[in-house]
Amino acid sequence: MTSEVTVRPARAADVPPIVALIRALAEYEKAPPGAVSVTEDLLQEALFGPHPSIEALIAESAGSLAGYALFFHNFSSWRGRRGLYLEDLFVRPELRGRGIGKALVEELTRIAVARGCARIEWVVIDWNSPAIGFYKSLGAEPIDGWTLYRLTLPTA
């Protein structure tokens, strides 16, 4: 059953609940204790500081925050156009299956098209079969043969 879902850009007042949902996402993804070091101040600066590095969408259902999407621009040298990278997509577990994630992805897609982006990309943990099934149901395809690498830098 799909209930009324509203998707809107994040506001400064959304930062504390977004941080709480980031921690819930880390717990769902079985991150080790202490893996999340984001603070409300860091997220506030990233979203609303003088040089924002990310954007966020908020999904509301029945008048409460139901999920969020964090994203930023990347660039495809092969396509010669920018794209959107979906850093996080998270819906509260008790609200999944109600069209909230789909509404977030649809709004993200609308933004990407309006901005002339060539694509939207993201990664998903290989054991998260519900998410993989959801993304495939939207028409997304895995990119076989590529391995994600990360160089983690020390923080100041």
Domain module tally: 1
SSE order, one letter for each helix or strand: EHHEEEHEH
Shape: globular
Portion of residues within helices: 25-40%
Low-confidence stretches: none
Q: Determine the structural class based on helices, strands and strand pairing.
A: alpha+beta
Summed over residues and divided by their number, the pLDDT gives a mean of 94
**Which band does the percent of strand residues land in?**
15-25%
**Cα gyration radius (Å):** 16 Å
CATH class: Alpha Beta
Head-to-tail CA distance between termini: 47 Å
Explain how this protein is built.
The chain has 156 residues and is of the alpha+beta class. It has a single domain (5-137), classed as Gcn5-related N-acetyltransferase (GNAT) (Aminopeptidase), CATH 3.40.630.30. It is 30% helix and 24% strand. Strand 3 (64-76) and strand 4 form a beta hairpin.
Name some characteristics of this structure.
Aminopeptidase, alpha+beta, 30% helix, 156 residues, five-stranded mixed beta sheet, globular
Gist?
This protein has helices at residues 15-28, 40-48, 100-114, 129-137; strands at residues 5-9, 55-61, 64-76, 81-91, 120-121. It is an alpha+beta fold.
